[in-house]
Q: What sequence folds into this?
C-alpha cells in the first residue's frame, strides 16, 4: 500500500491505524486463500466419492452375477425351486452373522459397552 508521507512523519495514532488496516487486509487475504484451498480439497473429495460410488455399483453387479452363477450351479444338485432358497438362506445367515459380529465389536468399543 502506497502512503504519501513517510512513517517517521506520522503520529503514533495514525501509525496504529495503518497497522490495524494492514492487519485487517492480511486477515482478509488469508481467509480468501483458506477458502480457495478448502474448495479445491472439496472438489477432489467429490471426485473420489463419485469414483467410490461407481465402484460400488460395479461391485453390486458383480455380486449379482456371482449369485446367479451359484444358483445355476446349485440347480445341478438341488431341485430347481430349492436352489435359490438355499443360496438366499446362505446369504441371510452370513449377513446375520456379520450384523451380530459388528454389533458386538461396536458394543466393545463404546465406553458403556
A:
Amino acid at each position: 500500500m502506497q502512503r504519501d508521507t513517510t512513517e517517521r512523519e506520522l503520529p503514533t495514532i495514525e501509525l496504529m491505524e495503518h497497522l490495524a488496516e494492514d492487519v485487517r487486509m492480511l486477515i482478509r487475504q488469508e481467509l480468501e486463500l483458506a477458502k480457495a484451498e478448502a474448495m479445491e480439497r472439496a472438489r477432489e473429495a467429490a471426485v473420489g466419492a463419485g469414483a467410490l460410488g461407481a465402484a460400488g455399483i460395479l461391485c453390486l453387479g458383480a455380486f449379482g452375477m456371482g449369485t446367479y452363477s451359484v444358483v445355476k450351479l446349485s440347480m445341478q444338485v438341488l431341485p430347481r425351486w430349492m436352489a435359490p432358497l438355499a443360496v438366499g438362506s446362505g446369504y441371510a445367515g452370513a449377513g446375520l452373522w456379520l450384523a451380530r459380529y459388528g454389533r458386538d465389536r461396536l458394543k466393545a468399543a463404546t465406553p458403556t459397552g
Observations:
- The chain has a mean pLDDT of 90.
- The helical segments are 12-74, 82-109.
- The chain is about 80% helix and 0% strand.
- The CA atoms of residues 36 and 42 lie 10 Å apart.
